[in-house]
Design goal:
CATH topology of the largest domain: Jelly Rolls
Shape: elongated
Number of domains: 2
Structural class: mainly beta
Number of strands: 27
CATH class of the largest domain: Mainly Beta
Helix content: under 10%
Strand content: 35-45%
Length: about 375
């Protein structure tokens, strides 16, 4: 009896030690300071810094450095199944990085598919990774996967975004009047009646129209002729009488003029001394951008390209929404016989890399 009593005492002592040490653990990798058993969230961080007891997500696409076939990218990955609660729903933190691991885009989503908003450089390597999250807790990052952006971005019109490089003898618009494509340089509009027309399927109520121009020059001592470099309107109503007209001029003496109309009786324009004279030179490249955002219209000219010296910067506020329907965009200015006013595209102007969008101008459009 004394022997059995000793065995029972020893067993009791072992149980006491086990309880004091936290009890029997069926899963030795589970967290020790659980916030909630349903999520497996822990107070103590793991070696990788994660505070949520879940496996890292598995990335599906794009992976392995694959080259994209579209200017945009959509990433997909698998649902994470938690160790303690396999049916728990998580949010996911998606991070896009450049080739050096510098974050470019961070998004938290509820699903497992995300269309990235970053505008990629052409033929460039990008990296991405994902981790699951619940409120202030997060699981481990996935492995880092990579993809390469499209080698060359072709022209396109999608929704209210337009890109037309005009460098390879073709356009996504409709040509009117005589033009000449100059490989690697752009398209020359060979007469004052020449223009390229684009139709945006969706109205761009706020954004920019920008392009690179060459062969601009001062040709007179006064503002005649009053020619245009870029323009927009609603439908096919005559440009000079259009209720949603946007025109940016380069006049004979180099004066910059513009007009922006946002409905009946509501317009802003350059007046008198606001039409500043620029010493345009036909051998130089000029970047022009007209932007309409947050009720402010602005025109900028840069000499020497996208990063060149600002030679004109002017704008004014407006009150109504800009809503041409349908939204028509032009390289040059539209003209039809019978319209009020004369043909008014800058003759022999060369234009390339047209960008119309609510998004910032991408680097591939600056060459």
């Amino acid at each position: 009896m004394q022997y059995k009593g000793a065995l029972w005492a020893a067993a009791a002592a072992l149980v006491s030690v086990a309880v004091a040490c936290g009890g029997y653990n069926k899963n030795p990798t589970s967290p020790t300071g659980a916030v909630g058993s349903a999520t497996g969230a822990g107070v103590d961080a793991a070696a990788d810094g994660s505070t949520l007891k879940v496996p890292a997500p598995v990335l599906i696409s794009p992976i392995g450095g694959v080259r994209l076939t579209d200017p945009e990218a959509t990433v997909t990955f698998q649902v994470t199944r938690g160790t303690f609660a396999p049916n728990q729903v998580y949010q996911y933190h998606v991070q896009l990085q450049n080739a050096n691991g510098v974050p470019l885009e961070d998004r938290v989503i509820n699903g497992t598919t995300l269309k990235l908003t970053t505008v990629f450089d052409a033929d460039t390597l990008y990296r991405w990774r994902v981790r699951p999250e619940i409120e202030d807790t997060f699981g481990p990052w996935s492995i880092v996967e990579s993809f390469r952006s499209i080698e060359k971005v072709e022209g396109y019109i999608k929704g209210n975004e337009l890109y037309d490089p005009l460098l390879e003898g073709k356009t996504v618009g409709t040509i009117n009047g005589p033009v000449t494509f100059i490989p690697g340089v752009g398209v020359r509009l060979d007469s004052r009646r020449s223009y390229i027309e684009y139709f945006l399927p969706e109205t761009l109520t706020g954004g920019e129209y920008s392009a690179l121009l060459t062969n601009l020059e001062v040709i007179s001592s006064n503002e005649d002729p009053k020619d245009r470099v870029i323009s927009m309107r609603s439908g096919q109503a005559a440009i000079n009488d259009n209720l949603y007209r946007m025109t940016v001029d380069k006049r004979g003496n180099g004066a910059v003029a513009w007009r922006f109309i946002t409905g009946p009786g509501d317009y802003i324009e350059t007046v008198g001394q606001e039409r500043q004279v620029v010493s345009f030179h036909e051998a130089l490249t000029y970047f022009v951008r007209a932007s309409w955002r947050n009720n402010f219209f602005n025109v900028i000219y840069r000499e020497g390209g996208i990063d060149g010296k600002v030679v004109y910067d002017g704008g004014k506020g407006y009150s109504r929404e800009y809503k041409p329907r349908p939204h028509m965009v032009y390289a040059g200015s539209p003209y039809q016989p019978g319209d009020r006013g004369e043909a008014s595209t800058v003759e022999d102007m060369i234009i390339r890399q047209i960008w119309v969008s609510a998004n910032p101008r991408p680097p591939y459009a600056n060459k």
